[in-house]
Design goal:
By secondary structure, this protein is mostly beta strands. Helix 2 packs across helix 3. The termini are far apart. The strands form ten sheets. The protein has a seven-stranded mixed sheet with strand order 1-2-8-9-7-3-4, with helices on both faces. Strands 16-23-21-18-19 form a five-stranded mixed sheet, with no helix packed on it. A five-stranded mixed sheet has the order 25-32-30-27-28.
Length: 653
């Protein structure tokens, strides 16, 4: 089956805070409905390249563009669930502020925010290839666009069938060394790799600007089809489409009629992204039909009061055509009461059955151990399907304190001691002792030698123990990274705002490599050049290009000019270890020579995964003067794949 997806066109590199490089990749959508397709079947839409901001784009009312956001589960693990949703909710305002500041008569409406199910958390941004160029893992840049733009995927059905929206944006967590975002030029799809900060929000306006035909500064893309579709520098800052990502971008598209601090932010000939975007948003808004609104939805009250030991029940009503099933999301937002301490649901979906004018949702309230004053949080209706929001779409919830005991029990965590790359394991948090109280326990991960979002899925779990509950479980994932490496570790720990006791507060997990391992190559290293009789010779052993299997390094010592028995000394480098030490104490030989030669022949043996050519002999000799010393570093390479011979002569007094 041939999939439609976004193809990489070019990579643009810009300085990030003067200390790093960040990529802003441009994609061209090779499938789906293109802007040209829309224009061809819409006679009233003029070619964007001929539009004039002053005349051709005048309309009676602003143009609305529907946008569906999909996010990666790992984004919430990195940012935190509540913070992650607040970040996604801010995208609409960020884009609309940029449009308004640019005098573009259009606005974006985010129709829904949905977690993607077709893209695995562990997929890297770009594809992984083997030494022979074979693709080992497709990148999320390709996989995500396939899911959004092709039938047979849940994301495609939500975006194009349920909401019939104009644009789709996929938001995942930023990972070191990846791009900040990408988008289809004159397309419908964009991707954001977010750190949850203002730069990431600015990137959303930047990338959707590409969807509307805007582009980077002229020096970056001089041969772009629309000559004036470029960003501009105005004073000490840049317009939003500029390729720089150092925090100095103004929330506006280049426009020669708008000045910032007395400096105009555009050029009629070279930099007027506002003009090209104004011409294109009309066509983009006709990409799909959208959803007809057939009624209105309301909360049944402006205020609610609930005690900590109660469940909040919220009733919603709808008017208009009630013959079909529909829904709306009820969001809970922090005030003096906060998510993860006083309530545990980000939102609940209220579903109206066919022919029903009411729907009900419930929110769990935490009956915590803290004696506190009345607290409040807010309810906000969002993303109504086939409905509009009435004026009664927000409410305040008052939480009244309930006096409780101070003992919530003793908690312990157990987890697998090791996970093979690509596998997941169950983590169990158990409560013993007093169980009659409610408490929230937070489980979070901390890097050891393993790194979150590279080697494993970051852990960020709010565990709500209701009265009588003694156990909670969740899953932790180790990711395959196609790199032969030693075992790496991370730790999952428990914490709580409540004063609770712990029997086992943390658990360490080791990630074991899955790759067909190599024994690798070994370097034996010694910093001295001379020795005296009775002195101990020490070689440090370091393993490179492999970690698999226990390997024995054997040094066989002979005196080629004398008929002494050879001496064999071994050292072991353990499986998954990369270091070892080889030592030998030189004997007091009955030789009258002022100096003489000692030869060390090196041999390595390994486990079954070791290349059979590793059993090769390597000889080292060194000549030193009597009782002399030196500090030059000698590095001796023991390659398991190719026989090598070195000589070292050592003199004894």
């Amino acid at each position: 089956m041939k999939f439609k997806h976004s193809l990489l066109a070019t990579a643009l590199i810009a300085s990030l805070s003067g200390t790093a490089l960040a990529k802003s990749d441009l994609f061209i959508t090779s499938g789906g409905i293109s802007l040209e397709d829309i224009k061809a079947r819409s006679a009233q839409v003029t070619d964007a390249s001929t539009l004039s901001l002053e005349t051709d784009t005048a309309v009676d009312s602003p143009i609305e563009l529907d946008l569906v956001l999909f996010y990666q589960n790992s984004l919430m693990k990195v940012l935190g669930e509540y913070e992650g949703y607040q970040h996604l909710l801010a995208i609409e305002d960020t884009i609309n502020e940029t449009l308004e500041n640019s005098d573009i008569n259009a606005f974006v409406t985010v129709k829904d925010i949905v977690m993607t199910t077709s893209v695995d958390d562990s997929i890297p941004y770009t594809q992984v290839t083997g030494d022979d160029g074979e693709v080992l893992q497709a990148g999320v840049d390709e996989v995500s666009s396939i899911a959004m733009l092709n039938s047979g995927f849940e994301e495609y059905d939500i975006y194009t069938q349920k909401w019939q929206a104009d644009h789709v944006m996929y938001v995942t967590d930023y990972r070191t060394g990846t791009t900040l975002g990408a988008a289809g030029i004159n397309g419908e799809y964009s991707i954001i790799l977010s750190s949850g900060d203002d730069t990431s929000l600015a990137t959303t306006a930047h990338e959707i600007g590409h969807n509307w035909g805007g582009n980077h500064e002229y020096d970056n893309v001089p041969d772009y089809a629309v000559a004036y579709a470029h960003a501009w520098e105005c004073g000490s800052s840049y317009t939003i489409m500029h390729s720089t990502n150092d925090g100095t971008r103004e929330p506006m598209y280049s426009n020669p009629d708008i000045a910032v601090d007395g400096v105009y932010c555009g050029d009629e000939v070279e930099a007027d992204n506002a003009r090209v975007i104004s011409g294109n948003v009309s066509a983009s808004s006709q990409r799909r039909e959208g959803v007809d609104v057939v009624g209105e939805v309301s909360l049944d009250a402006a205020t609610y009061t609930v005690y900590e030991d109660e469940t909040l029940v919220v009733t919603l009503t709808r008017t208009g055509d009630i013959s079909n099933e529909t829904s709306v999301k009820v969001f809970a937002e922090n005030d003096t009461a906060t998510f993860g301490q006083d309530f545990v649901d980000i939102y609940q979906t209220a579903t109206f059955d066919a022919d029903s004018s009411t729907a009900t949702v419930t929110f769990d309230i935490v009956n915590d151990l803290i004696d506190e004053e009345e607290e409040t949080f807010n309810l906000v209706l969002r993303f109504p399907y086939t409905l509009s929001l009435s004026d009664d779409s927000e409410a305040t919830v008052f939480i009244e304190n309930v006096a409780n005991g101070t003992d919530a029990g003793t908690f312990s965590i157990t987890a697998p001691t090791s996970l093979v790359e690509g596998d997941s394991g169950t983590v169990t948090v158990t409560r013993t002792g007093e169980t009659s109280q409610e408490v929230i326990v937070l489980a979070t991960s901390e890097d050891g030698t393993a790194e979150a979002e590279i080697d494993y899925l970051q852990v960020n779990e709010n565990l709500y123990f209701k009265a009588g509950e003694t156990q909670k479980t969740f899953t932790t994932e180790a990711w395959a990274d196609y790199t032969d490496e030693i075992a790496q570790t991370y730790t999952i720990s428990l914490s709580s705002d409540a004063s609770i006791a712990y029997e086992a507060q943390s658990a360490e997990i080791s990630i074991v490599d899955t790759d067909d391992g190599e024994a690798g190559s070994f370097i034996v290293e010694n910093g001295d050049t001379t020795y005296t009789e009775g002195e101990t010779i020490t070689y440090d052993i370091n393993r490179y290009y492999g970690v698999t299997g226990e390997v024995t390094i054997t040094g066989t010592i002979t005196w080629p000019d004398y008929d002494f028995d050879e001496v064999t000394v071994t050292a072991t480098v353990d499986d998954q270890s990369i270091t070892g030490t080889w030592t030998y104490t030189t004997p007091d030989l009955d030789i009258d020579e002022e100096k003489y030669e000692m030869v060390i022949s090196w041999e390595a043996s390994g486990e079954a995964t070791v290349n059979p050519r590793t059993n090769s002999s390597n000889t080292i000799t060194s000549i030193v003067e009597e009782q002399s010393s030196g500090g030059a570093m000698n590095i001796w390479l023991l390659l398991l794949l190719t026989p090598m011979v070195f000589l070292r002569r050592v003199s004894f007094k």
